[in-house]
Amino acid sequence: MPDVRLASPQGKWILLTTVLGSGMALLDSTVVNVALPRIGRDLGADLAALQWTVNAYMVTLAGLILLGGALGDRFGRRKVFVTGVLWFAAASLLCGLAPNAGMLIAARALQGVGGALLTPGSLALIQASFHADDRGRAVGLWSGFGGVGAAVGPFLGGWLVDGPGWRWVFLINVPLALLCAPIAVRHVPESSGGGAHGRFDVLGAALGALALALMTYALIEAGEGSVVVAVAGAAGLAAAVAFVHVERRGPDPMMPPDLFASRQFTAANLVTLCVYAAFGGFFFLAALQLQVVVGYSALAAGTALLPTTALMLLLSARSGELGDRIGPRLPLTVGPLLCAAGMLLMLRVGPGASYPADVLPALLVLGLGMVTLVAPLTATVLASVATARAGLASGTNNAAARAAGLVAVAALPLLTGMGPEAYREPDAFDDAFGRAMVLCAGVLVVGAAVAFATVRRPAAPDCRRPECRTHGSVAVPPLEAETGRGPDGGAAPRPPGTGRG
């Protein structure tokens, strides 16, 4: 049984290690978008290269994150976490030194592999290390500090881009990793899933990542209209079909199809696909819009986007409590509609836009919508499956959100008519941005309709509750770790509400 107390020196070291590790990945998800215009100018990259700068990371992360958690359970959570931290740092160094866009994109894909190893491990280390009486508070501190890191990310990214340069957006991960890894080796106890057995679903992970990569390529390059693009799109669909087949027939699938036998789980993931596709497209394009069209510096653009994260950080826990009282259907209907309204308000953000009168109101409405829906969405996912499978359900939902975001980043420029040089032409980009906001709002309305028609209050009163109550990330829903083990080695359900952020 884990017995480390939070107040002990070792407990504080463990908390610091996990915050540093997860903070690296959170920073990356929030700072890179702000740096894109400067990256494009310095490397002579077109819009497609900027899309790949975001999506190369997301393809490998989304495709491998479930496998990363399984590797930690089998070979040791600390070992895989430290490997992920060092891998992430090495790939970040390659990103910072990249001489051209092609090398940057390749390094970003490698960075996503490191993220898939360290992201599931940070929370799993807390679950496996701390005494049961302290675990809820440790999770709360971890998620709270992670939210602060997510809030600081855009500001820090803008300051780095305008100061020492965009390469430091990546290079800053190196000293963080050199601090994190030795602390983990020295102070974090090793742990593993004692009941782990069977083979790894390497084929499923490879097919999932391949399907995402090929379909993303087809969407980004569709404007070329070449045979290669058509073949890539067809191959991506074939890989997706093969992925489903392997998951249905494999002895140890990383994404068991019977999870989706729960109508509530399927409904929650459909809502997730809609809302996180819209969020992914919005945050990719909004950072460009503020710099290319409105004329903000990178620092000003990063700072301008802080209200959404701040609202999430301050109000997500209360939103979760409200969802517990009234059920998920109303929050998951109203939340996307508020987000859609916020994105339509962004239509006012053009040349000469005023931050207090035009930008801030849109971001506040968007942030309130995100606050309304994110915590109840996570709770719905966890409540729709058996308690022992809550961690797997959360990982599947997290991967679905990442996949939705990367598809949106790939598809929106195509659907709105953005050319390769659009981000260098303010008038053309402004027109396309307006069309993109209307499309994102439409997708959110579809998500609200799905929630209203399909989501219901969970029937089981003793279902798993989210442990990460405070949430600051605007890119993906929070990950939840697997349940603990009982004295007989079986899954031990936790009492409702044991973890509070």
From TrEMBL:
Transmembrane regions: 12-36, 48-68, 80-99, 105-126, 138-160, 166-188, 200-220, 226-246, 267-288, 294-317, 329-347, 359-387, 399-416, 436-455
Domain spans labelled Major facilitator superfamily (MFS) profile: 14-459
Annotated region described as Disordered, given as residue ranges: 461-501
Keywords from the UniProt entry: Antibiotic resistance, Cell membrane, Membrane, Transmembrane, Transmembrane helix, Transport
Record bears the keyword Transcription regulation: no
Pfam families: MFS_1
Alphabetized InterPro entries for the sequence: EmrB-like, MFS, MFS_dom, MFS_trans_sf
Broad class of where this protein is predominantly found: membrane
Coiled coil spans: none
Membrane topology reported for the UniProt record: Multi-pass membrane protein
Keyword Membrane: yes
Protein location: Cell membrane
Protein name in UniProt: DHA2 family efflux MFS transporter permease subunit
